[in-house]
Amino acid sequence: MRNERLRALLLERGKTPDQLAEHVQVDAKTVERWITKARLPYRRHRFEVASFLGVDESYIWPDALGKDEIAAVSESEIVAVWPHRSEVPRDIWGHLFSGAEREIGVLVYAGLFLSEDAGVQKIFKEKASSGVRVRILLGDPDSQVVTDRGEDEGVGDAMAAKIRNALALYRPLRAAGGVEFRFHRTILYNSIYRADDQVLVNTHLFGVTAAVAPVWHLRKLPAGELAGLYIDSFERVWDTATPLDGA
Prior knowledge:
CATH architecture of the largest domain: 2-Layer Sandwich
Largest sheet: 8 strands, mixed
Structural class: alpha+beta
Order of helices and strands: HHHHHHEHEHHEHHHEEEEHE
Number of helices: 13
Strand content: 15-25%
Strand order of the largest sheet: 1-7-6-5-2-3-4-8
Helix content: 40-55%
Shape: elongated
Number of strands: 8
Distance between the termini: 50 Å
Radius of gyration: 21 Å
């Protein structure tokens, strides 16, 4: 029995078993046994292999970790927790987005506080120019879900107005090009702010504004499942959203 996933990943990445062995600091024959005989490496070696190939450990060895181990790794993905979004230090947002090398994603209804931050907008523009994919999802101000959210928060039509204000503030960023904007009509249980494998998750609570609700800072780890749930959720909303004209 062979580990076809490990073999295929090496081919896809243009890497050899010898290169993998050197990185993990094991004998090349050991790597060959991992591939040709589907031998299960020690846990620390599995982590190194997954990091080297840029995938989750569970993809290469789906049966390697038990539920307790997965739960423990997922718990380790929690970097910080704030009881209210308003208490997240301002520089956290800048550090999050400025560290992105591949992906920046924002999923909100309005996220007005972010559009008002000239420093963050500058980061978005510079990152997009350098090849980072920057995507911003705003609630459709004419949708029923936005109307309902405004009622739930006790702000009524102000929710739709905040979205339009955010869009106006993003006008220079949209004109510069490179940043993708879409409207969504999704019932949001969380606002999601992503930079590569890190996410800030602002939970939504009935009857209060997002600024009062908690924020979780998560960093995706190999074999962890917590951060990936929110990253996947962002992608599902993006796939159902409508591109803005001129964006």
